[in-house]
């Protein structure tokens, strides 16, 4: 069936105009003024913003981590994402140390295929780089369409790789047209501080925060950036939180090096005062931890300076019962918080409405840059002829309040409970189907497609 979206204000990363959009066979086929297709279903977008579907390139669905699994499955997580205007997510496949990338991919395909409601792709997290893993990189890029390789400089003994492995991985990935992404914090220093605090009997969530000071992130960001420069490998830092780490990237621009930077909505909006709430603070135990007001300012400025390219979520929800695993030891609290459903509306409300970023910048960091940086553009991330009709209709004035009682994520609290938001996702199209309308999800479990991604070159 054809759709005709009429009278909307169409916003992309570069444009802002009133027009009509024709959608046929899942794609945008025409954009113009006063279009008419007698047989099409008409969607009236008068008074609404018409924007590309959001892309969240950092989510952890049904992920085995810290002795449990993140509580959103590919079904519940992508459905919640759709409710919040995010039509595509990139999830992380985790290689198990001592095992192959292929085994991990098979496991993740099993969980996601036929269950995801929204579109999804995978990053491959390399936790054990050796001769066997090296031989799998090219296949992942060229046959599987997995062109980004995630590394952890922390979580020692579980996910962390050392600099020897990092350098080898970067050389191999560069050779085949991929990108290395990184959780950039110094795992050794963090481990030392965690052990020290626990030995002193300091076991509350506050010490999670105090075990990951800014220097642990700034040092790792600089080291990663230097190694990416040395190997010539495209690089991307996930969930960057602080001034010191951003300065490492800023310094690299002086030698004309581009390392992409992602921050997450929580680091723009929340701060370390959340760690003053006793054990309730476990809701915000994530790595890196929330930072200071000066870091929030640096990150907003970094977006406008084109140093911070993407606002993601690092959605990694755990039920309260799971958080209680760390009631007597902060190092056992599963790290992560829920936000996949809230990212777009919060960023609009706090960013655009409060005049911190422009409307075009909003689309750029929430939709277009994720598609460009990760090899999905122009199929995803924009509204253009030939692009997938992943489109949101957004009321910039409608107010609502975030609450666990009404969200769709599979988690029994909200990290943003009571937050007043101005701006609401009204209708969501995914590949031309009406996926969300009037608060209802209209596409079934299994509607989501795996998106194979193109090679990347570290330029946008
Ligand atoms: O606390 C976090 N960030 N949990 C998810 C895993 C990761 O480090 O991204
Ligand atoms: Zn094995
Ligand atoms: Zn991380
Ligand atoms: Zn993460």
TrEMBL record:
GO terms for molecular function: dihydropyrimidinase activity; metal ion binding. Keywords: Hydrolase, Metal-binding. Its cofactor is Zn(2+). The modification N6-carboxylysine is found at residue 150. Its EC number is 3.5.2.2. It holds the Pfam family Amidohydro_1. Carbamylation allows a single lysine to coordinate two divalent metal cations. InterPro entries: Amidohydro-rel, Hydantoinase/dihydroPyrase, Metal-dep_hydrolase_composite, Metal_Hydrolase, Metallo-dep_Hydrolases_sf. The keyword Isomerase does not apply. GO terms for cellular component: cytosol. Gene3D superfamilies: Metal-dependent hydrolases, Urease, subunit C, domain 1. Residues 49-434 form the Amidohydrolase-related domain. CDD domains: D-HYD (cd01314). It comes from the Bacteria. Belongs to the metallo-dependent hydrolases superfamily. Hydantoinase/dihydropyrimidinase family. This is Dihydropyrimidinase. It comes from Chitinophaga agri. The gene is hydA.
């Amino acid at each position: 069936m054809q759709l005709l979206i009429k009278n909307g204000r169409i916003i992309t990363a570069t444009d802002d105009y009133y027009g009509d959009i024709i959608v046929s066979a899942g794609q945008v086929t025409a954009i113009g003024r006063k279009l008419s297709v007698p047989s099409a279903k008409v969607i009236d977008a008068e008074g609404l913003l018409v924007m590309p579907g959001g892309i969240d390139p950092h989510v952890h669905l049904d992920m085995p981590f810290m002795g449990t699994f993140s509580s959103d499955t590919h079904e519940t997580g992508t459905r919640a994402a759709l409710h919040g205007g995010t039509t595509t997510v990139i999830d992380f496949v985790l290689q198990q140390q001592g095992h192959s990338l292929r085994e991990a991919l098979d496991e993740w395909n099993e969980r996601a295929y036929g269950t995801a409601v929204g579109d999804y792709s995978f990053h491959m997290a390399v936790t054990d780089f050796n001769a066997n893993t090296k031989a799998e990189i090219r296949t992942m890029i060229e046959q599987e369409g997995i062109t980004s390789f995630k590394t952890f400089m922390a979580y020692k003994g579980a996910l962390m790789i050392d600099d020897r492995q990092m350098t080898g991985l970067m050389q191999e990935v560069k050779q085949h047209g991929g990108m290395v992404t990184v959780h950039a914090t110094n795992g050794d220093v963090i481990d030392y501080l965690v052990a020290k605090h626990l030995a002193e009997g300091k076991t509350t969530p506050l010490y999670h925060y105090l075990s990951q000071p800014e220097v642990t992130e700034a040092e790792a960001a600089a080291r990663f950036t230097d190694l990416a420069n040395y190997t010539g490998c495209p690089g991307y830092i996930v969930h960057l939180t602080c001034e010191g780490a951003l300065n490492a990237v800023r310094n690299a621009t002086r030698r004309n090096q581009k390392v992409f930077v992602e921050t997450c909505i929580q680091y723009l909006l929340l701060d370390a005062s959340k760690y003053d709430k006793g054990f309730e603070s476990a809701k915000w135990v994530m790595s890196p931890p929330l930072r200071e007001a000066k870091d929030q300012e640096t990150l907003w400025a970094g977006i406008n300076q084109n140093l911070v390219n993407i606002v993601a979520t690092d959605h990694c929800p755990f039920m309260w019962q799971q958080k209680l695993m760390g009631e007597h030891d902060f190092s056992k609290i599963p790290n992560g918080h829920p936000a996949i459903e809230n990212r777009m509306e919060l960023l609009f409300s706090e960013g655009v409405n409060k005049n911190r970023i422009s409307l075009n910048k909003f689309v750029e960091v929430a939709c277009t840059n994720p598609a460009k940086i990760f090899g999905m553009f122009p199929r995803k991330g924009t509204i253009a002829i030939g692009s997938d009709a992943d489109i949101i209709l957004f009321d910039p004035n409608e107010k609502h309040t975030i609450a666990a009682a009404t969200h769709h994520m599979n988690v029994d609290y909200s990290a943003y409970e009571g937050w007043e938001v101005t701006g609401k996702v009204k209708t969501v199209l995914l590949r031309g189907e009406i996926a969300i309308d009037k608060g209802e999800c209209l596409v079934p479990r299994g509607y989501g497609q795996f998106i194979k991604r193109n090679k990347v070159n570290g330029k946008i």
